[in-house]
Structure formats: C-alpha cells, structure tokens
Amino acid sequence: MTVKTTIRFLLYLVLIGLTLPFLLGYLNMLHPLFDSFSHFRIHLLLGILPLLLLIAFFHEKVIAFVYLLLVGVGAFYLYTITQPFKLESVDHNKTHLLKHLQFNLSFRNRRMEDFKSYLKEHKPDVVTLQEVTPAHQKELKKLMGSPFAFDLSTSFPYVSKERGEYPYQIYCNFQAVGGVAILSKHPFNEEKSICMEGQGLVSAQISVNHQAINIVSIHTYWPYPYDQPQQIETIKEIFHHIKPPTLIAGDFNAVAWSHSVKEIEKASHTKVVNGLRWTISLEEQVPLIPNFKLPIDQVLVSKELEVRKIFVEKSLGSDHFPVVSEIWF
Question: How much is the pTM?
Fold first, then answer.
C-alpha cells in the first residue's frame, strides 16, 4: 500500500465517521440518539467539507469534480442554515411592544447582582428563566418590592403599595440544578398559571394593554441518553390548556430543527423564531475545541405575535447567553 493510498484510506475513515452521524441526524424522528446527532449538524459539516476537498485531490479529474461539486452543495447548505434572524414582514396593525428576555441562569451563577442590574437597566417586560436555585430565587424576589414600602400620591386613596421592578413572579421546581421561572412587570391571571413540577415547565398568563398573552418557560433534558422524549410527550398535553397568543422560551437542550422542538411547535401551534443564535458556550465541556457553542435556547411564538428583533446578549455569569426579543402584538 502506497503512502497516497494509505492517506486516502485514512481520510475516508474520518469522512465516514463524520458523515454517518450527519446523515442519521436527518432521521431524528426515529430515535433520540439521532436527534442528539442533529444538534451537531453544523459542526459535522464544518469537518466534512474540508475532508471532501482533500479527498478530491487524491482522485482523477472526473471523480475529483464530483467531490468538488459536493463541497459546493455542502457549502451552500451551510450558508443557508447559519443565516441570522431575518424580519420577514411587518404587520402595522400590531402596535404594542413586549420586550422579552430568555436566560438559563445556570445553578453555578454567582453574578446575580450583575443580572439584576441588567434587568433594571434594560427593563424587559417579561423574563423566562431556567436553573433558578433557591439562592437565585431569594435574590430575584428582592425585585418584587418591599411589602412595607408605599408611594404617596395627590389623588385618592393617596397611598399605594410601592411596586418593584418585577412584582409578579412564579417559580416551579424541576431538578437539582434549579427550577423554571417567569418574572413580569404585568399582572398574572392566577387562574391560568400552571406548574408542571418535575417536568421543567411553568406557564403564566399576563395582561398587556388588555391583551392576554400566555408565557411559558421550559427546560428539557438532553435527548439521548436522557429522558427528553418522555418529557416532551408529557408536557405536550398541557398545550391543550394553553391557548394562543403564546410565547414559549427556554433551554430546550435542542436545536431549532430537532425532532423535540418540532413536536413542541405542533402541540402548541407556535413556530420557532428563525435565525441561528449560538446560545451556550461549551468551553468547560469541550476544552480541546476553542469557542465551541450550540444554538439550544429557543423562542417560539404563535401567529398572533410578531418578533421584529432578536439577539444574543453578553455573558451574565452563565454558560448560556441571554436572548432578547422584541415582540409586537
């Protein structure tokens, strides 16, 4: 076996090792392992394309041309799936703005003062959170305002309770890393609140400009070898009781094109907001690959709501990054 043949053989082995999970990721409805593969579609493609280019140089012109053609097709596909958010249209009948912040706090987060300062400065109307520990909850409740503080006014009844930045808060236990939560500047309809304890879902209905909007904070497991499929099957049923308009946000541990996210879309009559957003840094988990990230925090909205702006914010002490969206209704 010549050196050239040996190199080509080794390149093919690596190519097969990358291409097999890449292709199986498109069969993610068949098994949760394949759904896990689909999360790395972009990363696998970034490995496959250079390999195809290298292999092309080890073949005659006709076969080399086929490989170069595959590189071109793959590069175009990579370009399409890595596009940022695009505003598709503007409905001028929607005149009310709801600012939303989605954030997995991380149970290790020790920068709560920075996070609270961010909320006070940027003033999102509603906040969906995951991995909220009892210590986090204690800090966040300070944003509700003091029960002993009052505002004076010149009109009857002249005295009213002082409201904090986020007087309306709801929490729901999930697992050891912390629960899910919703903070709001707008009042909750208590009768419509739902806590699926141990299932990673909390829902609250808020009223904004006399419009009722259902807000859902969600945290799911990783697909395989964990219990995300069973969890999805359980929480899907709750959407029979949560009617649009609906905003769902959370750490899905799943990319937008995953089977799990598609199942939530169908059950809730929502769509994930378009565009690629790298929302978690895996530097600790994958130290040998610099700047390794995944787009696993999602925002889904029903057709009554229109997202006109969405972006990933700076780090606030978590391995996840906050996702900010401006939603019109």
Answer: 0.91
